[in-house]
Amino acid sequence: MKQQKMEIEKLIESARTRSSASAAHVELIAVTKELNLEQTQKVVDEGLIHLGENRPDGLLSKVNALSEKVVWHYIGSLQTRKVKTVIDHIDYLHSLDRLSLAEEIQKRASRPVRCFIQVNVSGEQSKQGMAAEEVELFLETIKDMSFIHPIGFMTMAPIDATESQIRTYFSNLRKLRDTLQHSHPNLQELSMGMSGDYEIAVEEGATFVRIGTALVASLKE
Ligand SMILES: *Cc1c(COP(=O)(O)O)cnc(C)c1O
Question: Please, which contacts does 213-216 make with residues 24 or more away whose CB atoms are closer than 8 Å?
């Protein structure tokens, strides 16, 4: 995977430099959800310290076994009843999408969690995340929850979206952040872009990209 890592880092950097909407810095999250412990160790050995998991079991089986240097990102939808088992093991939650989840985190966490609010920018029924119009009120509602530190927004483009639609979704998320930043200066980050669309995401201002297949699939054999 050394090759894939170098290639992806190069493409991220060139996407970043060719766009005026891009961020000053882009963090690569290696999505290790389909890898076992040994394969995940290889990802860490390549120098990738941001790892993404989307299931409580996958996360918990790895957190204690891997280096303390790993920064853990929980990228999947999180069931309320699973909060207590995972919340103190993660550094970032990418899927804060409802008030009941925020309330449960506030109740169960013993340390603050950096959270991305997941937004459904495409308006597609089946997609997770709250509508863009709901975000401002949501931020107001959670503002006194001491264990929730909202740092920005996350989104996923629908699988069947065209390139130009994907670009519109990502740039709309950036505009949402830019608007809400006036009243909420801590909203700096944008988690967007996966294997198929990370270059567009970086051009549109992503600060974190979440890449699985294109980066780590070669370890799966
Ligand atoms: C699996 C997953 C990814 C990575 O997807 P790839 O297409 O394999 O890069 C990114 N984000 C989320 C939320 C995921 O579940």
Answer: 214/4, 214/8, 215/1, 215/4, 215/5, 215/8, 215/28, 215/30, 215/31, 216/1, 216/4, 216/30, 216/31, 216/32, 216/34, 216/35, 216/39, 216/43
Report the nearest atom of ligand 1 relative to the CA of 54.
Answer: 15
What pLDDT, in 10s, does the model give residues 29-87? Answer: 999 999 999 999 999 999 999 999 999 999 999 999 998 899 999 999 999 999 999 99
Enter the DSSP assignment of 5.
H
The model's pTM is: 0.97
Q: Which atom of ligand 1 is nearest to the CA of 95?
A: 13
Residues 25 and 190: their CA atoms lie apart, in Å, by 11
Cα 4 to Cα 27, 44, 190, distances in angstroms: 16, 14, 23
- Test site for ligand 1: of 54, 74, 153, 166, most ligand atoms within 8 A of the Cβ: 54
Q: The dihedral of CA 171, 18, 156, 110: what is its sign?
A: negative
Ligand 1 atom at shortest distance from the alpha carbon of 214: 9
Q: Count of CB atoms within 10 A of residue 179's CB? A: 14
Q: What is the 211 CA–ligand 1 centroid distance (Å)? A: 6
Q: Ligand 1 pocket by C-beta < 6 Å: which residues? A: 31, 33, 54, 75-76, 156, 194-196, 210-214
Instruction: Please tell me the distance between residue 63's alpha carbon and the centre of ligand 1 in angstroms.
Output: 19
Q: Give pLDDT tens digits for 179-189.
A: 999 999 999 99
